């Protein structure tokens, strides 16, 4: 995740309750937590991933400031909201990038966010993820305002013999 973009987004929204879907190694968790700590007050980060690959000890690093659920979205989203004490105002979505998974995550996010919540979808240049966001907005008409790709760094490469592009942050605002 682009450090400047993510810190700026958290600072801009100044959420009391933040959700991270997809933790993997935990780098974004640290960035989001640092921004929340700089904002001060009793702000909560709930992070979830059914198959993390953390590069640090979660409890030692966050010392109770952030809660980690080794569970997946969208099934564990209501539990995450209960732990946070209410709907989320900021969501960082960086989980499975397959089309159906992204659509299911976006559907689930609707039920655990409040109007005005900021949703940042990572790896916006990945084609199946792009299609999932577009279809969720146009065909399903999920209640998000599409603010477009706000961080335009593109990381192109090859995966399983196919050309792919990752990176990019797609900004949605919950209506």
Describe the structure.
This protein has 175 residues and is α/β, with parallel strands linked by helices. The protein has one domain: 3-Layer(aba) Sandwich (Rossmann fold). It has six helices and nine strands, in the order H-E-H-E-H-E-H-E-H-E-H-E-E-E-E. The protein has helices at 3-13, 27-39, 58-62, 77-84, 99-112, 127-138; strands spanning 17-21, 44-48, 66-69, 88-93, 113-122, 144-151, 155-159, 162-166, 169-174. A seven-stranded mixed beta sheet has the order 3-2-1-4-5-9-6, with helices on both faces. Strands 7-8 form a two-stranded antiparallel ribbon. Helix 1 (3-13) runs parallel beside helix 2 (27-39). The chain is globular. The chain starts with a helix and ends with a strand.
Global morphology: globular
CATH A-level architecture: 3-Layer(aba) Sandwich
Integer count of domains: 1
Oligomer: single chain
SSE order, one letter for each helix or strand:
HEHEHEHEHEHEEEE
CATH class placement? Alpha Beta
Order the strands across the largest sheet as they lie in space.
3-2-1-4-5-9-6
The helix-and-strand class reads alpha/beta
Radius of gyration: 15 Å
Number of helices: 6
- Going by CATH, the homologous superfamily would be Vaccinia Virus protein VP39
CATH topology: Rossmann fold
Biggest sheet: strands, sense, closure? 7 strands, mixed
What is the arithmetic mean of pLDDT? 93
Percent strand equals: 25-35%
